[in-house]
Amino acid sequence: DHxxxxxxxxxxxxxxxxxxxxxxPSLTTSLISYTYANWGxxxxxxxxxxxYCLFLSDNLLSCSSKCxxxxxxxxxxxxxxxxxxxxxxxxxxxxxxxxxxxxVHTVTLVYYDNVSVIYLFENPFQHHRTxxxxxxxxxxxxxxxxxxxxILHVPSRYQIADIFTKGLPLVLFQDFxxxxxxxxxxxxxxxx
Length: 192
Known about the structure:
Layout: H1 2-15, E1 20-21, E2 31-38, E3 49-56, E4 59-67, H2 75-99, E5 108-112, H3 115-122, H4 134-145, E6 149-153, H5 170-179, E7 182-183
Parallel strand pairs: 2-5, 5-6
Antiparallel strand pairs: 1-7, 2-3, 3-4
Helix pairs in contact: 2-4
């Protein structure tokens, strides 16, 4: 099964060697991120995969796809870790941009496709059964209460971070890849 997956990956890479990440000038400096977690998605180990992508305006600035090192007993644990990971990354990027004299003056937006997750980060009274993940919850909740982060709902169809956590139908994969600005270079006009 792993060899079959490896062959598919190598075939994809071979067919897209000329693709790259394109960056575009922008007047706005807002951080927007998408995060998703696939609980127990590995068919062999049942470990979970979490992923995120973080944009500065329309430009992909950071992305991650990570198989969790241990098994998770609940989907909530994986989800909250994933949200905490992207919030942590956005805080680091905000500090880096500040040091580079390009401060971000807007709230960082984090999109997730589960309304109950969003509610838990905003409601301090709904975590009595989430002891293993309280640190992640409190970390994100603190950023939300300070007005540094907003957790917003995005329909699953537009959850770009899905591309980092599981196989997708070809059309959806290509759509998400385009949203990440991973594409072929513009046509060359050299010699024309």
